[in-house]
Amino acid sequence: MQDKSDISLLRLIEDFLTARGTRKPSPHTLQAYRRDLVAIGQLVAEENDPPLPLAELPLSVLTARTLRSAFARFAAPRAPASIYRAWSTWNSFFIFLVTDGVVAGNPMSAVDKPSAPVPLPKPLRGEDTPEQLLHAVAREDQRQRHPWPERDLAVLALALCAGLRLSELLALRVGSLAGRAGERRVEVDGKGGRPRVIPVEPELDAVVLRYLDSRRRRFGARSVRREAVLLVDRHGEPLRRGGLQYLVESCYRRAGINDRVPRGARLHALRHTFATRLAEDGATASEIMWLLGHASLTTSQNYIDVTAGQQRAAVRANRTNRALGGLAAGGS
């Protein structure tokens, strides 16, 4: 194998990110890859003797020993999920380098990592919270500077009734909703390049059509052509990540449910609510996996397991059960 040990780490990171781009990851995912690669690279550069600027760090410095030391420092202030994500990114990076003939082997097997975290679902709290949210947003609020309830309701409904991720919502086109009345579906460009098709019930279909009608009145017929982005801001421009997050958070405030939204799962709480209700209503893990576009059946099964646990906890809290316990113990 040709000696490539003096190639700059930053150059190889760019090569890796370019190669990953063919999988159509979201910009947020690519930023996370870059952030994890640069963070560990910076720690290796700082610990070198003598310390090096990251831009001058050669591949040869990245050994099992230097990576173990860098990961130990990286791990100290961070949660296991963040450490595991960074380890996975670096493992993928070295697999890419081995495949490309840049290095002979992958040193990441010598770097410890936490167990893969099992993410717990974070749906909206409260039995009727989703309905309260939808009813509140459907009403025009004159306190808003630029009210557009039809658009806001469509965003929430697509997340709550189709389980779409933020990146999937932003990628939708007007033509993503296809099929005849009664057989409507939304065609989703899913995470990791996994497309899927989700059935659209008449109620969701009607909400989206009302939004498109309101958009046509605002911006004209050309604004709702099939190739146009589905979700737009008040100027008719495509919604961006920050704008969509702000829109959803403003909907929570208007509905007065901020205290029922799990921390760290603002828009994602809507998707988790969709999945949790599927599990509560008897959907199988494979059905949940298909509808949500999960890569692993384990992730989908987790919704069923958590739901079963919550149901058992609710039964355990029943006062009649507690009274029965006293009788079983011989109480009067």
From TrEMBL:
<keyword id="KW-0238">DNA-binding</keyword>
<dbReference type="InterPro" id="IPR011010">
    <property type="entry name" value="DNA_brk_join_enz"/>
</dbReference>
<dbReference type="GO" id="GO:0006310">
    <property type="term" value="P:DNA recombination"/>
</dbReference>
<feature type="domain" description="Core-binding (CB)">
    <location>
        <begin position="7"/>
        <end position="98"/>
    </location>
</feature>
<keyword id="KW-0233">DNA recombination</keyword>
<dbReference type="InterPro" id="IPR010998">
    <property type="entry name" value="Integrase_recombinase_N"/>
</dbReference>
<dbReference type="InterPro" id="IPR002104">
    <property type="entry name" value="Integrase_catalytic"/>
</dbReference>
<protein>
    <submittedName>
        <fullName>Site-specific recombinase XerD</fullName>
    </submittedName>
</protein>
<dbReference type="InterPro" id="IPR050090">
    <property type="entry name" value="Tyrosine_recombinase_XerCD"/>
</dbReference>
<feature type="domain" description="Tyr recombinase">
    <location>
        <begin position="119"/>
        <end position="316"/>
    </location>
</feature>
<dbReference type="GO" id="GO:0003677">
    <property type="term" value="F:DNA binding"/>
</dbReference>
<dbReference type="InterPro" id="IPR044068">
    <property type="entry name" value="CB"/>
</dbReference>
<dbReference type="Pfam" id="PF00589">
    <property type="entry name" value="Phage_integrase"/>
</dbReference>
<comment type="similarity">
    <text>Belongs to the 'phage' integrase family.</text>
</comment>
<dbReference type="GO" id="GO:0015074">
    <property type="term" value="P:DNA integration"/>
</dbReference>
<dbReference type="InterPro" id="IPR013762">
    <property type="entry name" value="Integrase-like_cat_sf"/>
</dbReference>
